[in-house]
Design brief:
Layout: H1 2-26, H2 31-42, H3 46-53, H4 57-69, E1 73-77, E2 85-89, H5 91-112, H6 117-131
Helix pairs in contact: 1-5, 2-5, 3-4
Domain HTH marR-type: 2-132
Organism: Thermus scotoductus
Pfam families: MarR
């Protein structure tokens, strides 16, 4: 049963990712980079973003540098602690995030359209319970 649940979650995630892949490539983003843009918008410090995403800090730091090089993000020093820096989305990054979110939303909406509103509410409740550690 555990493997069946994991397999279904994995296959759904893969199908959504594949459906969005072409659109994300046109934006010069991976799915993980699009997620990081979303996270940085509310968690601008690298360590906070890494913790929120559940990824190793070096992985997030590398991704942040790549997004900065592509002009999706800009770095600035923290006014209170000059050893720290934060990131914020550039206009290009904000536009790319909007487009990436539209791709993700469309892909998921196509699948959710197969469910009744009460089934979606129940799905959200169950996912929330599974998410709690």
């Amino acid at each position: 049963m555990v493997w069946e649940v994991m397999g279904r979650i994995w296959r759904l995630q893969r199908a959504l990712r594949e459906e969005m892949e072409e659109g994300l490539e046109a934006l010069d983003l991976s799915g993980l980079e699009a997620w990081l843009l979303r996270v940085v918008d509310t968690h601008p410090y690298p360590s906070d973003a890494a913790r929120h995403m559940g990824l190793p800090p070096p992985t997030v730091s590398h991704m942040l540098r790549r997004l900065e090089e592509k002009n999706f993000l800009e770095r600035s020093l923290d006014n209170k602690d000059l050893r720290r820096f934060s990131f914020r989305l550039t206009e290009k990054g904000r536009n790319a995030l909007r487009q990436a979110e539209a791709l993700m939303e469309a892909a998921l909406r196509r699948r959710l359209a197969r469910l009744k509103p009460e089934e979606i509410a129940h799905l959200l409740e169950l996912l929330g319970r599974l998410e709690e550690a």
